């Protein structure tokens, strides 16, 4: 009986927990340059046009023609039919088509007119940099499964119908979760080592060319690793570097040295992306450890609030800026009670 009680005492212990802290670092940079010359003749309809300039020369020529003022001369006669004078009226041009054509221009665009010919020179340089840092964390029981999602649901049209005779049209919409997902199952082993089964996904919306053409970028990682308590381990990484060059030109004319630049459009883009994922498990065996980790996170958030409070807000008084109380029993007391205690201590 005594031996049985000892076995029960050994088994009847508090289950350990594991705090999982992940670190996702993504750095991306890109450079690009587009340069092109387009030609067009409104009288003959001849054009040299490229699709990567943002402003097709055909639309620009039509817009320039409609934007010109129209002058009309009308002869004025008296009641006997005798000529008196000519009256001239001017009607302002319509800039709607020109504004629509130039709305797609990125960078600089210069239009040159020479008789019936029009030239459109466009140039744009792009430079993009991004540095994304995400640090999701979650606490889970030993051998338990935990999932963590931070993001949003994006509606995606999956189908549509207009019905018979265009009656009762409807669309079917599916919602896709986009953001940061973390699913983990920890198992504590001997020697304070932790085996982790991890599924991690980082996704975002790239854009859409149409109602049903939504593009998503997804970085997913599925793995099982062994990590020591408190050790940070890199789970995986991606270094992606791309360089693209494209050229559109008029045959023969575009190959002429120097002069050929007037009959071609060039585009060059260079992009580089670094993605690294780190993870750190911390074993929590008792309330003291849990309290220490909680206090560390709590004080970090409170320090951020105090820093923001020192900077101040333009639309809010400094006394009204919310700040967490000091970690301890005060955190569970109502704000009115804490204010009363502070007033009593001052008196």
From TrEMBL:
Pfam families: Secretin
Subcellular location: Membrane
Keywords for this protein: Membrane, Signal
Main localization (coarse): membrane
GO biological process per UniProt: protein secretion
InterPro entries named among the record's database cross-references: Bact_Secretion_Sys_Channel, GspD/PilQ, T2SS/T3SS_dom, T2SS_GspD_CS
GO cellular component: membrane; type II protein secretion system complex
Repressor recorded as keyword: no
Coiled-coil residue spans: none
Span of domain Type II/III secretion system secretin-like: 124-285
Family of this protein: Belongs to the bacterial secretin family.
Protein name in the entry: General secretion pathway protein D
Species: Vibrio ishigakensis
């Amino acid at each position: 009986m005594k031996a049985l009680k000892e076995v029960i005492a050994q088994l009847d212990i508090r289950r350990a927990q594991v705090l999982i802290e992940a670190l996702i670092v993504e750095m991306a940079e890109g450079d690009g340059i587009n340069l092109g010359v387009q030609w067009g003749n409104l009288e003959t309809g001849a054009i040299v046009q490229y699709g990567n300039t943002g402003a097709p020369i055909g639309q620009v020529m039509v817009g320039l023609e409609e934007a010109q003022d129209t002058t009309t001369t009308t002869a004025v006669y008296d009641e006997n039919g005798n000529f008196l004078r000519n009256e001239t009226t001017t009607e302002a041009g319509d800039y709607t088509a020109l504004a629509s054509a130039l709305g797609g221009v990125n960078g600089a665009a210069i239009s040159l007119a020479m008789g019936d010919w029009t030239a459109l020179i466009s140039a744009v340089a792009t430079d993009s940099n991004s540095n994304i840092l995400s640090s999701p964390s979650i606490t889970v029981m030993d051998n338990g499964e935990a999932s963590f999602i931070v993001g949003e649901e994006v509606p995606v049209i999956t189908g549509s119908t207009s019905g018979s005779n265009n009656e009762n049209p409807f669309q079917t919409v599916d919602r896709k979760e986009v953001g940061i997902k973390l699913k983990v199952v920890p198992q504590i082993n001997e020697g304070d080592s932790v085996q982790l089964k991890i599924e991690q996904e980082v996704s975002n919306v790239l854009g859409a060319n149409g109602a049903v053409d939504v593009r998503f970028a997804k970085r997913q990682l599925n793995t099982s690793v062994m990590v020591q308590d408190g050790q940070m381990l890199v789970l995986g990484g991606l270094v992606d570097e791309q360089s693209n060059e494209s050229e559109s030109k008029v045959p023969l004319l575009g190959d002429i040295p120097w002069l050929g630049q007037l009959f071609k459009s060039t585009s060059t883009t260079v992009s580089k992306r670094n993605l690294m994922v780190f993870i750190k498990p911390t074993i929590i065996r008792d309330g003291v450890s849990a309290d220490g980790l909680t206090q560390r996170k709590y004080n970090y958030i409170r320090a951020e609030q105090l820093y923001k409070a020192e900077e101040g807000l333009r639309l809010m008084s400094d006394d009204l800026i919310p700040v967490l109380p000091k970690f301890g029993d005060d955190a569970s007391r109502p704000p009115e009670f804490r204010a009363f205690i502070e007033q009593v201590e001052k008196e």
